[in-house]
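Notes continue from the previous slide.

Worked example: a multi-chain complex. Inputs as given:
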Amino acid sequence: MPGKLYGVGVGPGDPELLTIKAKRILERADFIAIPKTAADKESTALSIVEGAVEISKEVIELIFPMSFDEKLLEESWRNAVLQIKEKLDSGKDVAFVTLGDPTIYSTYIYIHKTLLDEGYECEIVPGITSFCASAARVGVSLGENKETIAIVPSAYECENLDNILDSFDNIVLMKVSRSLPKLKDILKQKGLWEKAVIISKCGFEDEVIEFDIEKAAESKLSYFTTMIIKKGGIK
Amino acid sequence: MPGKLYGVGVGPGDPELLTIKAKRILERADFIAIPKTAADKESTALSIVEGAVEISKEVIELIFPMSFDEKLLEESWRNAVLQIKEKLDSGKDVAFVTLGDPTIYSTYIYIHKTLLDEGYECEIVPGITSFCASAARVGVSLGENKETIAIVPSAYECENLDNILDSFDNIVLMKVSRSLPKLKDILKQKGLWEKAVIISKCGFEDEVIEFDIEKAAESKLSYFTTMIIKKGGIK
């Protein structure tokens, strides 16, 4: 009988934010599959797992390059699927770890769908999202009562941003560092300037929290930077 | 020195979806505060906690009636704040448990803000949201690549729903059971009929998953029912 694939969300950074289930699956699985952007790079997801689970088993490193080249990406996915299938076919369970939650902008979903279509048993283990951890960190609610929430993964390329900023009560902009200089002007114009907070690398040692968007726009912030805009006020 | 208040998200139902941190805080806190809708009702949050943590300490029951009467609600909040303050003032730590995540439509936020303003130390411990657990359960991603996500807590009363359904890639409608007969027609009209899935009481014994919205609209579903609409297709 083939093994089972688990897509395990490990949360945004703090190892204590793994769920009890994630910990159990990672401890019991025969192999842990770790996504990396390059063979010589550290895996952020692995460092989180190591903070919560003692790993004595074999780790499969899967390379997903930071690229917009679809051919290259497809090749890396196909390669990852093959490596995982080999373990599953030998009856071993594989836990694929992803930052945050596997259903929120993760590379895992493609592998899940492909292997599910091929008849393998696959299960998603949810994780703490970066936006929930960020909101918790700064003590801001993402939604109260009838308030709507918009989540935009890439403000830089969002054609609908103007409409979203106008019509939603709360807006989460993920991976926002590149867009800050542009966003600064839009937010000032819309009077949302003082209703935003920026959280970079939430839960890591080099975490940054910034209520001053002007200052944030001038800083060199990580790729893992989130902005929360709350029309009711962030304080 | 006064004690510390923790707002602890316990996830949507499965006790294994508590985080390691939530478990630690609940085990160490001197008091666990539990929201209930009425004195004689079971607390859903408490039943989740009891599945993961051995509770030998005193539980403070806080009544938040299901009501739209603002005076009544304010009174229940004030009362909850007083009960918690009494424990904090005696140097005891209190863990207030909330379903899902404390920053996503929880009653905890009001208490957090009030006690923070009064100078008490308060911390939010994030939890697994019902929509992430639901998406994981049915193997659907809430967002891929540049896709936007809208979260609407109460479709019945959302004036902007038409615009949201038109302009977002993925839409989460929470507490949707009341709105189903009305939504059915809107979704049919917009061609979103077969791009939606309904998950009711995710992780509980009486969980319902329904890909047929017509059938779902005819069923008597719980208050804890979520619809995920994914324009890229749910399968």
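Summary box: The two ends of chain B are 55 Å apart (CA to CA). Chain B has two domains: 5-125, 130-230.
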